[in-house]
Design goal:
- By secondary structure, the protein is an alpha/beta fold.
- Helix content is about 25%, strand content about 20%.
- The protein has seven helices and 13 strands.
- It has an eight-stranded mixed beta sheet with strand order 2-1-3-4-5-6-9-10. It has a three-stranded parallel beta sheet with strand order 11-12-13, sandwiched between helices. Strands 7-8 form a two-stranded antiparallel sheet.
- It is globular and about 60 Å long.
- The N and C termini lie far apart (about 45 Å).
- Bound molecules: succinic acid.
- Succinic acid (SIN) binds near residues 20, 36 and 100.
- Succinic acid (SIN) binds near residues 65 and 98.
């Protein structure tokens, strides 16, 4: 394949981290009874005949079920992606990942790598051994986006839809059509190998902490507490006692917080813990900020707010 100006296409580096896209099941009809993260990145590429002959490199960084994603893997992934993106011959990087924490990893990379080239995450809801796996098409589409002229930023490609990494949300636990872009809407579509843009490619500066992440084992602890009927102050108190330096409360509606948790949150603040409130609603975030309310995470989802608060605390601690 040639780029639009006829020059040789750039290399795309595929970084494998595991997930259902790399999962295998004993029974091809099973979409739930499988082991995630079995196959390496080479095997995922080999399963897509349409990619053969393209200038690709594949590297397996991890074989995780992404529900077990950890901060050390995030740092390795960000470092490796940044390394390859800085190579002049590389057009873009594709990360294969589990769907369960895809939006968290996407947001972390968005705030720490903030690339001027495409850094494209992809995943699958069905294991590689399924009768009709979604991984091979998603990988093909992700590589297509990584080579698309003008594409940039952290993106996620699933089901032919290109989401900005910072807008990505997992909306369904089983169906192939599992992701959305929230109120932002998708960035582009991939149709038969062609990328059709719908809005501008995402661009944002990296967080100040990005250059001083250091050893993830030294990062301040930031946890999430959900506000719900019958919420107990003890859940906040226990996390503070266990060393939390930051808390995100996933509030109800427009970020409202149960009185029990509010009281405990005030105690936590007095002890120097940084507490933010987000919304547990799928869309909309938190609008406005009453004077007496806890600091708002705005449009960030609770898991995104946790990453943002983590980076704030890392920056403040270095
Ligand atoms: C995972 O997140 O690693 C398992 C689930 C999936 O990829 O769909």
């Amino acid at each position: 394949m040639q780029s639009t100006d006829g020059s040789p296409p750039g290399v795309v580096v595929i970084l494998g981290t595991g997930g259902t896209i790399a999962g295998t099941a004993a029974n091809a009809a099973s979409h739930v009874g499988y082991q995630a993260g079995v196959l390496g990145a080479d095997a995922l590429v080999a399963a897509v005949p349409a990619l053969q002959g393209w200038p690709l490199e594949a590297e397996t960084l991890a074989r995780l079920d992404s529900c077990d994603m950890d901060h050390a893997t995030w740092v390795r992934l960000a470092d490796r992606a940044a390394f390859h993106l800085a190579r002049p011959e590389v057009a873009g990087v594709v990360v294969t990942h589990g769907t369960d924490t895809l939006e968290e990893t996407a947001y972390f990379l968005h705030r720490t790598v903030a690339p001027a080239k495409p850094l494209v995450l992809t995943a699958a809801m069905r294991p590689a051994t399924a009768l009709s796996p979604d991984g091979p098409q998603n990988l093909f589409d992700a590589v297509t986006v990584a080579r698309a002229p003008g594409a940039r930023g952290v993106l996620a490609v699933l089901g032919g839809v290109v989401h900005a990494g910072a807008s990505l949300r997992k909306l369904h636990g089983y169906r192939v059509d599992a992701f959305g872009s929230g109120d932002e809407g998708p960035v582009a579509l991939v149709e038969d190998g062609q990328v059709r843009t719908l809005r501008g490619w995402p661009a944002a500066p990296a967080h100040a902490a990005a250059t001083r992440l250091g050893d993830a084992a030294t990062w301040p602890v930031v946890d999430i507490v959900t506000s719900h009927a019958g919420a107990r102050a003890a859940s906040v108190d226990a996390l503070v006692a266990a060393g939390a330096r930051g808390l995100v409360i996933a509030g109800t509606g427009n970020g409202s917080v149960h009185a029990e948790l509010s009281g405990a949150a005030r105690r936590a603040q007095s002890a120097g813990v940084c507490v933010w409130r987000a919304s547990r609603c799928l869309l909309g975030g938190v609008v406005g900020a009453p004077a007496d309310a806890l600091p708002s995470a705005g449009t960030l989802t609770p898991v995104q707010a946790r990453v943002e608060l983590l980076l704030e605390l890392i920056a403040a601690s270095r």
